[in-house]
Amino acid sequence: MNFYFENKIYLLLLVFVPFIIYFGIKKLKYIDDKKKKIIITLRTVVIVSLILALSGTSFYWNAKNTTTIFLLDNSQSVKSSQKDFEEFVNKAIKIKPSKDSIGVVSFGTKPYIETFVSKDGKFSKISNEVNNEYTNIEKSVQYAFSLFPNNTKKRVVLLSDGFENDGNVSNVVSSLKEAGVDLKVYKSKEKSSSDVAVDEIKVSEKVNLGETFDVNLKIKSTVNTKVKITLYSGNVIVGKEEVNVNKGENNFVFKDTAKEGGFKNYRASIEADVDEEIRNNEASAFTEVMAKPKVLVLEDKKEESDELINILNSLQIPYKKMDASVAPKTIEELTAFKAIISCNVAVDNMAKEFLNSIDSYVKDFGGGYIAIGGDNSYALGSYMGTPLEKVLPVNMEVKGKKEVPKMAMGLVIDRSGSMSDTIGGLSNLDLAKEGAIRSLKSLRNGKDEISVITFDDAFSKVVDRQIVKDENKIIEDIGSITLGGGTSIVPGLTESYESMKSSDAKVKHIILLTDGQAEKSGYDELIKNINENNITVSTVAVGQGADKILLKNIAERCGGRYYEVSQGTDIPQIFAKETFLAQKYYLNNREFTPVINSKGGVLTGVSENGLPTLLGYIGASPKSTANVHLKSDEDDPILTTWQYGLGKTVAWNSDLTGQWTKNYVGWNNFKTLWNNLINYSTNNFSEGGNYIESTKNGTDLNIVFRKESETNVENSKAKAIVVTPSKERIEIPLNPKSSKEYNGTVEAKETGVYMIQVVEEVDGKVNSTAIGGYSNPYSEEFSLDNKKDVTEYLISELNAKVITDENEVYKENKVAKKAKRELSDMFIIIALITFFLDIAFRRLDLYSYMGKFKRKIKVEKSNTVKNTDVKVEKTPNVEVENNLENGTELLSKKSKTKKDKKKKKTKIHDEKKILDTKSLLNKK
Hints:
Blueprint: E1 2-5, H1 17-27, H2 33-54, E2 57-61, E3 66-73, H3 82-94, E4 101-107, E5 111-118, H4 137-147, E6 153-160, H5 173-179, E7 182-187, E8 196-202, E9 206-208, E10 212-221, E11 225-233, E12 236-245, E13 248-257, E14 262-272, E15 282-290, E16 295-299, H6 306-315, E17 319-323, H7 331-334, E18 339-343, H8 352-363, E19 368-372, H9 387-391, E20 394-395, E21 407-414, E22 422-423, E23 426-427, H10 428-442, E24 449-455, E25 459-467, H11 471-479, H12 489-501, E26 507-514, H13 524-532, E27 535-542, H14 548-557, E28 562-565, H15 571-581, E29 587-588, E30 595-596, E31 617-618, E32 621-622, E33 627-631, E34 637-644, E35 647-652, H16 668-682, E36 691-697, E37 700-706, E38 716-723, E39 729-738, E40 741-747, E41 752-762, E42 765-776, H17 790-798, E43 801-802, E44 819-822, H18 824-843, H19 846-873, H20 878-896, H21 904-923
Parallel strand pairs: 3-4, 3-6, 6-7, 7-43, 9-15, 16-17, 16-18, 18-19, 19-35, 21-24, 21-26, 26-27, 27-28
Antiparallel strand pairs: 1-2, 2-44, 4-5, 8-10, 10-13, 11-12, 11-14, 14-15, 20-32, 22-23, 24-25, 29-31, 30-33, 33-34, 34-35, 36-37, 37-40, 38-39, 38-41, 39-40, 41-42
Helix pairs in contact: 1-2, 2-18, 10-11, 10-15, 20-21
């Protein structure tokens, strides 16, 4: 048995124990010697126990039994050997010594237990689903080590190809050595494969606008075969070629020209005639095109942006005009532009990917965004609750003095058989249901009311008029609408009117949608009643079969709006827009002079001599931290700006076509205003001489941010915003390494380009930024490079053995293996118990209790002796018994005359005298 101390330095404290005892004795000099010895002993035990616990005391002994843990590599590189590994483990378990224990663990990136450690462990095959695109032997060995019992010998059997591409197994070697672990390695059988892989794609880190540059591609192959190469820039094919590749390394060069500024992402993809593994057939890279900042202009209709284009041309600001539906979809594409300007664009006409990226583009990457109004923008363009509302300086809902009163919305929807016509896979009825849901979402929860009625030959109540509270239940009811028969409008419209007239809402509006012909009469009295009860009706004619004249007449006579829909995809947008238009607070068609709310800034050189009148605008409400520069005569925001993250955004609530800005088009200062707004939105934080370095270690992406100037790290903090290839946004803190350097780590498993933005703040304000990226290749599991076999290192360091047969598993290694027992916890328990005994001994005067207890024991023993002696001296002689009794009585009388009672010893002495008296009486 041997003792081991993990922290030997603490054993030096034992030198001070005698001094502690000495000073303890001096301090307790007025205490009884026996009591003093007990106290000193207890305190010495406490101190020594704590020192041994701090020292990490443990002891080893030669164990008789062995615990064997099988580590099964389940990564992609050994997929073909998985059955062989499973068979090997099953055979080894069958011949296990009866007293030994076994456990089974499978691993890829992380380890998972397949069979818990026990003597009767069973295993058939790997059942856990692991991330098998990486191999981490370090974590799996650490995990196996944690499963070993302390009182057995330890053995690890590693079944793997030994190619570790995540973690570092050398970190656990010292622990294995110390514990005397017997390591055995069963190597996977090498299998030749026919594989072609894109090994690398390289491009210059930075290129200039207009520059033609090389894109270098390296392809590795284990066979001679034909390969089709396709090179993409973003989603655009910039190169395509069919080549012959030879076994080994093959290099190809493509040419491309930098036509736009910003980050440019390249992706190479191959298709080979002979290829067993396709997960290594793609690779990516990126470059940054250095160019003068450019503005992106988005529009729905061509005339919407004409005036803006004239202004940009006169200011000589570079721009690119695009239809909103084909706007850039990724951060890489968006960062090619310093700012984005949307001209009266509805959300429904914007690409979803663009909307999903706009928030990060502005907030994290410092892009600018300007929204120009019109009847398809802001609330009327369904911005509410979208990323556009999130980045803009105004809320879509009108609040404050002009807060919209309670509203009741009635939806009357045709469900006749003709509504089954489909466009793009969705029927008109499906789109009408989607429109009803959009209308519901535009109402205010807990305040506004909604009712839904459908009709064919007769009407049916789908949603009774109710305050919007349980939105999910209403959506469920709307979703239950099915197709019916003919078309009869009057009954359904009448029922909606009857429901609406009893509402206490200030605004009451009905939307009627149909695609067919209905009765021609019976409307006059109904329309009269509708008008008398201040209810408005808008109508939607779907397709060519609708009675357009009838629907237009109803809308005009009921104070609503008429829509013709040639394709059903416009229906949801119309329903949402109508919900806001009905409230009459959003679309403001009237002439007024804007009120200047703040001078200077974006109004510099614009407002000195007053402003022309505007003819209209879209209602909204400013956010609390936004700057309102111009407002209407009713305090609605007209021009608002704010800082959103690293970027800046602008809301212009009027239009730019001349419909509302007739008096501004051609006004000299109007050009100055837009020059100021564009400069404001593009003048964001500069990177200066800052830059980002990114390197990969296993699955960890290490980010280093290096600054041009020094910063006091006590007042600063930095973070990195990482956008993954799947567009997930990850924010990680960066730790200061010096006054000019920060670093951090993020997990990177996806193949493709990671965009990285670093922001450093000092006292809560942005001080410096940098933008960069990292092109993450596929896992090394699929690489054709010569990989380093870590089993060779393990064999040399641990005297491990490569085995080929299950019978070799249980052969003892020459290295002595011992069982280990940790004692630190035991010493802590001893110290605690002894400490409390010390307190109890001093505070509760246990010494006195102990004395009393001892005396009690002695009395009981003496009484036992007395009783025993008397019984032994008894005799059947009557004369002797009488004489004894007389003698006892005589002595009793004498003892009663004594004043002081004698102690126990005296009593025992008296008893002996009684026996002597008995002898004298016998003699007499």
